[in-house]
Write a structure and sequence with these properties.
The chain is 34% helix and 26% strand. Helix 2 packs across helix 3 and helix 2 runs parallel beside helix 4. The chain has a six-stranded mixed sheet. The protein has four helices and six strands. With 122 residues, it is of the alpha+beta class.
């Protein structure tokens, strides 16, 4: 089974989990040299937050999605856990973004190609 990168998109603070290592928006405050995965995860979370806009109407809701990128960083497919309005907002945001940059290193890029996203406005 291929490992997934888990990214949580939360309005106030964003976290993701890669092989048990938690990454958040505050990573740079606590770690002097963020990893390539952390840096790219931060970019993805920022892109998603910007594209989704104000999610205050969805406070208390949660949506899980799986996002798959091709080897160039283009969105290949997105799977939603449900057809809720929040999931549709996140789904549409991902497709609007279309392209998520990938690192030059193939091993790092492969870790970022399959992501589990958790959208939970706070």
């Amino acid at each position: 089974m291929k490992p997934f990168l888990i990214v949580g998109v939360i309005l106030a603070a964003v976290t993701c989990n890669v092989s048990g290592e938690e990454i958040s928006d505050l990573e740079g405050v606590f770690v002097n040299e963020p990893t390539v995965i952390t840096q790219y995860s931060d970019v993805y979370m920022r892109l998603l937050r910007e594209e989704m806009g104000d999610l205050s109407a969805y406070r208390g809701s949660e949506c899980a999605l799986n996002m798959h990128l091709n080897d160039k960083g283009l969105v290949e497919r997105v799977e939603m856990q449900s057809q809720s309005k929040l999931c549709r907002v996140a789904f549409n945001a991902i497709w609007e973004i279309t392209f998520f940059p990938l690192p030059a290193d193939k091993q790092d890029a492969d870790k970022l190609r399959d992501m589990k996203l958790l959208v939970s406005p706070q």
